[in-house]
Amino acid sequence: MIVWVNGTFGAGKTSACRELVGLLPGSVLYDPELVGYGLRHILPPDRMATVSDFQDLAAWRRLVPEVAAALLAEVPGPLVVPMTLLREDYRDEIFGALAARGLAVHHLVLDAEETILRERIAAREEVPDDPAASARLRSWCQEHLPQYRAARRWLSRDAQLVDTSGLTPRQTAERLAELVEQGSARCPIVQSADTTGDTVAAAVLLFDDQDRVLLVDPVYKPDWEFPGGVVERGEAPTDAALRETVEELGLQLESSALRLLAVDWEPRTGPRRGGLRLMYDGGHLDATARAALRLPAEELRGWRFVTLDEAAGLLPPNRLRRLAAALAARERGELRYLEAGLPAAVGA
C-alpha cells in the first residue's frame, strides 16, 4: 500500500510523514526525490539542463513506481510518500503504474491558507550554511504557490484534503492515519494486468452529429484514449469491442453495428506493451445515447467529442496516427493495415 501525502511547499509534508511512520505499523518513509538525485548523478549534464524539475524526466516517473514495488518486496509496508504532485497527467502515469502492480494508493493533500504557507516558507532555513542558497530556494517555493492554486481544483476531486492551518505535525499525522484506516482517501484506480507479453486490443470509434469522434480520459495514464481495451484470452476481438463499450460507456451495441476500419501493429516501446490494435467504426450517437453515457469512476474521468485537430492535443503521436488512418479508411469505405500507425505494404 502507498500513502501518498501531497501538497505544496510549506504544507508540512515531511514533518507530518515522519510522525505518520510511527503511527502506521510496518511503514517506511519513501522520498521519491532520492530517485531524482540519483538521476542527476547518472544522466548527462546536458540532459539535466533541459529540465527544472525531476518530475519532467520520464525516467523519474517510470522509476518511482518501480522503486516502490521493489521496496514493498522487502518490507511489509505501507510506504509513506511525502511528494508534491501537481500535474494531473503525471499523477495518472505514476498512480496508474502503481495500480498495474497491484499497489493501492491512498492520496492525501495537506492544505493550508496561502498566507500561512508563505509564512512557513519564509521561516524555513533550507541550507543553514548558505544563506544565499536558502533565499533562492525560498523564492522558488513561493513562485510555485500559484501552481498549487491551479492544481487544487483537480486535487479536491481526486484526493482527501486535510486542512493543516491549525495543526501540529503530530496532529496532522494522526488525522492522516485516521483517514488511511477509514479508506476514504483510497484512489479507485483500475488494476490492469501487468504482463510482459504483447496484446491484442480493440477500440470503438463513436461519432456525434458533427462527425467528431469520442475520446475518453483514463485515470491511470496521462493521455486520452479511444473507448476499448485488451482482448481477453479466448475472446474474439469484436466481442471485446462490444464488451468494452458496455463496461466503459454503459453503451450496448449490436455486433452488426461495428465495421473494422484499421489493424495497426504497435511496436513495444520502453515499458509500453506492443501488439495488434483493431479500430472499429461504432456509428453515430444521437442526443439520447450521449446523455445516457455512464463512465466507471475507477477507470475513466470524462469523455468528449473532438475533431482530428483537437485530438492532436490529447493523443500521443502513435494513437493520433492510428486515428487519422482509421478516419481516412472510414471516409473511403476501406480497411487499412498499419504498422506503428503508418500504412504498410502487404503483398506484391
How would you sum up this structure, described in words?
The protein is of the alpha/beta class. It folds into two domains: 181 residues, Rossmann fold (3-Layer(aba) Sandwich), CATH 3.40.50.300; 145 residues, Nucleoside Triphosphate Pyrophosphohydrolase (Alpha-Beta Complex). The protein has 13 helices and 13 strands. It has a six-stranded mixed β-sheet with strand order 8-6-10-9-12-13, sandwiched between helices. It has a five-stranded parallel β-sheet with strand order 2-3-1-4-5, sandwiched between helices. Strands 7-11 form a two-stranded antiparallel ribbon.
List the helices and strands and how they pair.
Layout lengths: L1 E5 L6 H9 L6 E2 L3 H10 L2 H4 L9 H15 L6 E4 L5 H13 L4 E7 L2 H10 L7 H13 L1 H14 L1 E4 L5 H14 L16 E9 L5 E6 L9 E3 L6 H13 L9 E8 L8 E10 L2 H5 L8 E7 L1 H4 L5 H16 L3 E4 L2 E2 L5
Parallel strand pairs: 1-3, 1-4, 2-3, 4-5, 6-10, 9-12
Antiparallel strand pairs: 6-8, 7-11, 9-10, 12-13
Top keywords for this entry?
Nucleoside Triphosphate Pyrophosphohydrolase; 348 residues; 2 domains; elongated
